[in-house]
Design a protein that fits this description.
185 residues; Four Helix Bundle (Hemerythrin (Met), subunit A); two-stranded antiparallel ribbon; 8 helices; HepT-like_sf
Length: 185
């Protein structure tokens, strides 16, 4: 059973002090790691594509990320910035997989992974440029705009969504899963 500590000021400390009685935390972490590493490459790609597609749909559902929305709910900008960072991480994972499949070196940076994806035919140079704009990763540019030019956030998000949607479609086609829809998930 999980328990909460209560500090001397009477405020509960939300940290869990015990794990379920029959499972040590290290065993749970080890089991989770084994499950993740036992997935085939195909299953990993499926999982990444599903997660990517859901993230894209969720951000699109928010609508335009304009100044009015950002003023109404300042958290939305931070959440979308994190989603954009996660989308880049997912694209990196897929690009690395594709590079390995083509007997190429495993990329160490997102830029290298996009070059590898171009070399292997997953994406073209134009999409690679859209995924890694000259002014920096989408989530970094968005964060800077949130701080200094919130009126630019809507355009940054729109460009990022467009690039990652194209990438997701190409990756799904490459993996032979282009016909998977969210309704079947």
């Amino acid at each position: 059973m999980n328990t909460l500590n209560v500090a001397s000021n009477g405020i509960p400390d939300a940290r869990v002090t015990t794990a379920p009685s029959d499972i040590a935390l290290s065993d749970a972490a080890e089991r989770s790691s084994q499950i993740a590493s036992s997935r085939s490459d195909s299953e990993r790609i499926d999982h990444i594509l599903i997660t990517m597609r859901r993230a894209l749909v969720q951000v699109e559902a928010i609508g335009p990320v304009d100044v009015e929305l950002l003023e109404l709910n300042s958290t939305v900008g931070l959440v979308i910035e994190r989603v954009l960072a996660n989308l880049m991480d997912m694209a990196f994972d897929i690009n690395c997989h594709v590079s390995r499949e083509c007997s190429g070196p495993t990329p160490e940076t997102f830029s290298e992974s996009c070059k590898g994806a171009v070399r292997c035919g997953l994406i073209d140079k134009e999409l690679a440029s859209e995924l890694m704009p000259a002014d920096g990763p989408h989530h970094v540019v968005m964060q800077l705009c949130l701080d200094t030019e919130p009126e630019q956030v809507e355009a940054v998000v729109a460009r990022a969504l467009s690039a990652f949607q194209k990438f997701e479609c190409r990756a799904a086609e490459w993996a032979g899963r282009g016909n998977v829809s969210l309704t079947s998930l």
